[in-house]
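Re: that backbone. Tokens:
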């Protein structure tokens, strides 16, 4: 996710753009920049890092002009740097972009052959070159932008200004958000409403394929069909703070509801159902390297460690490679059996967790190849990896990790399929089925979120609990651990996750009428109940027999579990190895609503930090 702002009117706009970017910093903060149309043409100022760095730069060189665009970046291609910061300028054109252009490398190659010199590693820069190219062929700015959009494949929220026609902003939207602000003698564009609210509450949400030419006098809007479309102006009554969370009460709630989009962005351009294979940009694994891997060693902390436990199941089941999973804080202080035939995978949302970084370095020092699964481009762990598999979840602001977890699982699944295809342990046909299941996942996530009211009622019913157990088996065991972590870290209720089969070895002594137990009792697959399901039914009844209060998450259509549970929460069914991505959502929402009902600081729980960069 990135933040885009644009202005056209009669006011000096540089500081207005920066104010707008500040309201969008939650969308990304790797770098920022503005481009302003001055008397002598375009003036671009960019700075790596937080917005403050750009503001400091602007003190010395505030561009003058009344039309401009700005951007705060969340890196997907190219590390955070001044050169990779937007706006990107080529000739008399400046662009800002949010999205991913899948065919940017081939387009870049063609343009370089034609003599174009590129100055960044980003996909976005391709727009400035393509549009300038079309202008030099004689097209006006709107036509030049349209021609460029026909050449690219991918997603974009795009804003363009040009010296050729310095009185207009041209914008277009495909899969990434863009909203127009309708002012008096001025008009605005932004990725999200917070950047506009200080100037106007009248907004137009652009739809897929929309294209608009914006001047200070008005807006010419055309739809995906190329026909003029009447702009539907809506009045926003949110406060600026509410707007930053897009109407959600907390960032955590917003991020739980962003998971379908985050999964779509993580999978995009990587899973080819047609070819029954996976293409992992940033991973240089080939058949020779993969044949030489005798063991995979995963190191991670917290939620990322829970994701790694599921990653183990995926890789061992699909790629048949032995996998060990260690808590990073433990791994680095034992004598790990790691050598040049080991692939070490470090999993970290922030890419900065000290224990994980330390373990990763330890494994690499012992000869292992290092692969990072991170959400922050250019983070410490990503920089030290031989291969990087980024989750494209966008910035995760809530301390409690949610969309990072589910996108890490999707990344592991993609990696498992790739490893299986490279080792020959996975046929193209079976891979196609897996990837078809993966492609359907975002829709199933949306369907799971629709049960929020049921989950919220359960949360309110048990928000007074002093303790709570989460039980799961097989792929649902890491979900039990993750659910317990979510609950304890934001509601401060003591919660534990257990392998359900372990209950009889001690924990069942805890069960009485004061012990609520959340049981992950989904079926093993769509075609059969399965052994885990059969066994978890038994565990559920053991809890009930001792007076325990059972909250069960069950497969849609299952009539058995709701009869046994005090509260039952439906969950759609999918590939058993992908089920955790769905079944974790009720545990996320349950924990969120318990904490919100208890009035704790959901986004910044006590004693915790979003990234633990100390040991
Ligand atoms: C999860 O909700 C916690 N915030 C915490 O356990 C987190 O997962 C852990 O600190 C690891 O962080 P990382 O993924 O950024 O390495």
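Recovered sequence:
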């Amino acid at each position: 996710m990135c933040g885009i702002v644009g202005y056209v009117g009669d006011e000096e706009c540089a500081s207005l753009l920066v104010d707008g970017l500040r309201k969008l910093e939650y969308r990304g903060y790797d770098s920022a920049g503005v481009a302003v149309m001055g008397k002598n043409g375009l003036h671009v100022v960019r700075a790596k890092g937080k917005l403050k760095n750009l503001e400091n730069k602007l003190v010395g060189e505030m561009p003058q002009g009344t039309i401009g665009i700005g951007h705060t970046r969340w890196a997907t291609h190219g590390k955070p740097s001044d050169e990779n910061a937007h706006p990107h300028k080529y000739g008399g054109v400046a662009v800002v972009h949010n999205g991913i252009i899948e065919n940017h490398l081939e387009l870049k190659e063609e343009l370089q052959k034609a003599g174009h010199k590129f100055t960044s590693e980003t996909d976005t820069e391709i727009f400035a070159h393509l549009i300038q190219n079309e202008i030099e062929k004689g097209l006006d700015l709107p036509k030049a932008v349209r021609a460029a959009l026909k050449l690219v494949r991918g997603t974009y929220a795009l804003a363009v200004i040009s010296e050729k026609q310095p009185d207009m902003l041209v914008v277009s939207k495909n899969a990434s958000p863009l909203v127009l602000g309708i002012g008096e003698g001025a008009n605005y564009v932004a990725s999200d409403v917070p950047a506009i609210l200080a100037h106007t509450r009248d907004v137009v949400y652009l739809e897929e394929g929309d294209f608009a030419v914006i001047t200070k006098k008005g807006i010419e809007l055309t739809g995906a069909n190329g026909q003029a479309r009447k702009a539907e102006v809506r009045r926003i009554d949110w406060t600026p703070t509410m707007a930053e969370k897009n109407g959600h009460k907390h960032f955590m709630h917003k991020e739980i509801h962003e998971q379908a989009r985050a999964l779509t962005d993580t999978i995009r351009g990587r899973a080819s159902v047609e070819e029954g294979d996976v293409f992992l940009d940033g991973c240089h694994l080939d058949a020779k390297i993969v044949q030489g891997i005798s063991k995979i060693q995963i190191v991670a902390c917290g939620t990322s460690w829970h994701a790694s436990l599921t990653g183990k199941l995926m890789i061992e089941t699909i790629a048949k490679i032995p996998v060990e999973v260690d808590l990073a804080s433990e791994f680095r202080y034992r004598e790990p059996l790691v050598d040049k035939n080991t692939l070490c995978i470090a999993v970290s949302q922030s890419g900065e967790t000290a224990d994980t970084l330390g373990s990763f370095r330890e494994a690499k020092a012992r000869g292992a190849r290092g692969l990072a699964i991170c959400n922050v481009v250019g983070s410490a762990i990503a920089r030290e990896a031989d291969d990087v598999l980024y989750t494209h979840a966008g910035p995760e602001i809530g301390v409690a990790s949610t969309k990072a977890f589910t996108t890490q699982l999707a990344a592991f699944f993609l990696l498992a399929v790739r490893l299986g295809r490279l080792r020959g342990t996975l046929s193209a046909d079976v891979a196609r089925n897996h990837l078809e299941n993966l492609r359907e996942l975002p829709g199933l996530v949306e369907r799971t979120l629709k049960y929020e009211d049921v989950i919220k009622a359960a949360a309110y019913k048990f928000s007074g609990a002093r303790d709570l157990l989460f039980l799961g088996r097989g792929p649902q065991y890491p979900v039990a651990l993750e659910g317990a972590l979510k609950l304890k870290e934001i509601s401060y209720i003591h919660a534990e996750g257990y392998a359900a089969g372990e209950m009889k070895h001690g924990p069942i002594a805890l069960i009485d009428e004061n012990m609520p137990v959340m049981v992950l009792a989904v079926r093993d697959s769509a075609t059969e109940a399965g052994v885990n399901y059969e066994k978890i039914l038994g565990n559920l009844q053991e809890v009930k027999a001792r007076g325990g209060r059972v909250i069960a998450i069950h497969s849609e259509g299952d009539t058995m579990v709701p009869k046994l549970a005090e509260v039952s929460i439906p969950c759609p069914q999918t590939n058993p190895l992908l089920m955790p991505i769905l079944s974790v959502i009720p545990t996320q929402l349950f924990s969120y609503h318990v904490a919100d009902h208890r009035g704790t600081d959901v986004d910044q729980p006590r004693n915790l930090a979003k990234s633990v960069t100390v040991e």
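The chain has three domains: 3-244, 254-447, 450-598. The pocket of 2-deoxy-2-amino glucitol-6-phosphate is lined by residues 301-304, 348-350, 353, 356, 399-401, 485, 489, 611-612 (CB under 6 Å).
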